[in-house]
């Protein structure tokens, strides 16, 4: 139940309990010492009255009127505090001007009143009884005023401390509101860093978290725009390939089919020429299929799913060798064999594909080397050429959109990608991809 209360209310209740216990302890100590105080006063008054009575009795035989002397003794004794002196068998009325304490309190501090009997030797006795009613009343008044004053001080202290706690905990509501705004996605918000040093530190941490989330939001927006741009560029490339390569092939095939139809229906058609036309059309269709496979390979490498990473890279390299017979492409694919997680295998294939495209189109190299190897928990890819190299060492983020997209893909997998000039000349691209057990490139 206590856990459901607010921190401010819990602190206030704790303070109230402490003040109440302190007040109760003070009153209890005062009551505890009240009995000893009353007994000391009563004993002192009784001793003084006894001495007075005994001194008077020694003069009683020489007194001309013993009864008058006893009457003066009793009159003088009535002026004594905390004691009552009477003749045996007589009762002296209590003083009406004394504020009485409650009976339970009187019985608590002085359970039994001491009574002393002194014989006068004339057939009478003087009774000395302790009667600290006025002392008990004084102590009771002290306790009452102490309770009233202590309660007043406790209430004032409680109010002051509650106000101080409320002002101290005021930043908590601001911090909670800031966290709620962060939860709603308002990452541009900032909370004021005021209050005690502890709250200032928390506010600074919340603001730092908000700034980090805002930066990540901006990076995500840039990444989305970049991905959209890359997709648009890829679509443009595919559209250009379809227009520039597949389109002419289709036009040529269509024209060849039309010419073949006219020759086949012409009188005296030559079977040899018809066969030659069919062969040309077949060659054009085969070339069209190669272009189609190349475009499909850019979209989704079927060889990767069918043959695995090593064979897919061999096929990729062979395609570049056929298109660029003057460039030697050397492969070392020891780490590409075996089961590799699909996302890792596809990323490795794309890295090699983009690196070969850049090396063969832009570097002027006549030799490209591709190395794929494994180490514990990682797949390492190195592509180096002996071309012109880079003007300055740079990261993939400062390169073209292809390598920039590869850098983002590698970063999403938790790997690294670097592009720099090689010490032996040319450019060198290095990538490291984390590998997990299970999952394969083939399904």
UniProtKB/TrEMBL annotation:
Its EC number is 2.7.13.3. Residues 350-437 form the Histidine kinase domain. Keywords: Coiled coil, Kinase, Membrane, Phosphoprotein, Transferase, Transmembrane, Transmembrane helix, Two-component regulatory system. It comes from the Bacteria. Residues 206-233 form a coiled coil. The keyword Zinc-finger does not apply. This is histidine kinase. It comes from Methylocystis rosea. The lineage of its organism: Bacteria, Pseudomonadati, Pseudomonadota, Alphaproteobacteria, Hyphomicrobiales.
């Amino acid at each position: 139940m206590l856990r459901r209360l607010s921190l401010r209310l819990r602190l206030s209740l704790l303070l109230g309990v402490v003040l109440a216990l302190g007040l109760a302890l003070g009153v209890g100590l005062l009551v505890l010492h009240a009995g000893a105080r009353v007994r000391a006063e009563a004993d002192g008054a009784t001793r003084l009255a006894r001495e007075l009575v005994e001194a008077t009795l020694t003069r009683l035989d020489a007194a001309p009127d013993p009864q008058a002397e006893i009457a003066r003794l009793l009159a003088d004794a009535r002026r004594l505090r905390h004691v009552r002196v009477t003749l045996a068998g007589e009762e002296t009325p209590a003083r009406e001007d004394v504020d009485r304490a409650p009976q339970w309190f009187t019985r608590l501090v002085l359970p039994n009143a001491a009574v002393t009997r002194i014989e006068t030797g004339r057939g009478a006795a003087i009774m000395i009884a302790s009667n600290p009613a006025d002392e008990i009343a004084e102590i009771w008044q002290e306790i009452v005023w102490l309770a009233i004053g202590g309660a007043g001080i406790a209430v004032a202290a409680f109010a002051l401390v509650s106000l101080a706690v409320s002002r101290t905990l005021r930043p908590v509501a601001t911090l909670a509101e800031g966290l709620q705004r962060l939860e709603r996605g308002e990452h541009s918000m900032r909370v004021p860093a005021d209050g005690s040093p502890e709250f200032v530190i928390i506010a600074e941490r919340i603001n730092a978290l908000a700034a980090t989330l805002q930066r990540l939001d901006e990076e995500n927006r840039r990444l989305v725009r970049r991905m959209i741009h890359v997709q648009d560029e890829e679509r443009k490339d595919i559209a250009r390939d379809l227009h520039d390569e597949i389109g002419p092939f289709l036009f040529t095939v269509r024209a060849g089919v039309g010419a073949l139809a006219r020759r086949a229906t012409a009188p005296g058609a030559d079977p040899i020429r018809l066969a030659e036309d069919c062969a040309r059309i077949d060659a054009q269709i085969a070339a069209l299929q190669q272009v189609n496979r190349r475009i499909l390979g850019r979209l989704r490498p079927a060889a990767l799913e069918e043959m695995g990473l090593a064979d897919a890279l061999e096929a990729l390299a062979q395609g570049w060798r056929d298109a660029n017979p003057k460039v030697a492409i050397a492969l070392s694919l020891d780490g590409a064999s075996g089961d590799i997680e699909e996302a890792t295998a596809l990323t490795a294939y794309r890295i090699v594909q983009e690196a070969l495209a850049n090396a063969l189109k832009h570097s002027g190299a006549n030799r490209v080397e591709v190395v794929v190897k494994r180490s514990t928990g990682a797949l390492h890819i190195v592509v180096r050429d002996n071309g012109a190299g880079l003007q300055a060492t740079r990261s993939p983020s400062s390169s073209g959109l292809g390598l920039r997209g590869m850098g983002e893909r590698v970063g999403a997998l938790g790997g690294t990608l670097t592009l720099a000039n090689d010490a032996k000349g040319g450019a060198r691209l290095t990538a490291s991809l984390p590998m997990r057990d299970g999952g394969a490139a083939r399904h």
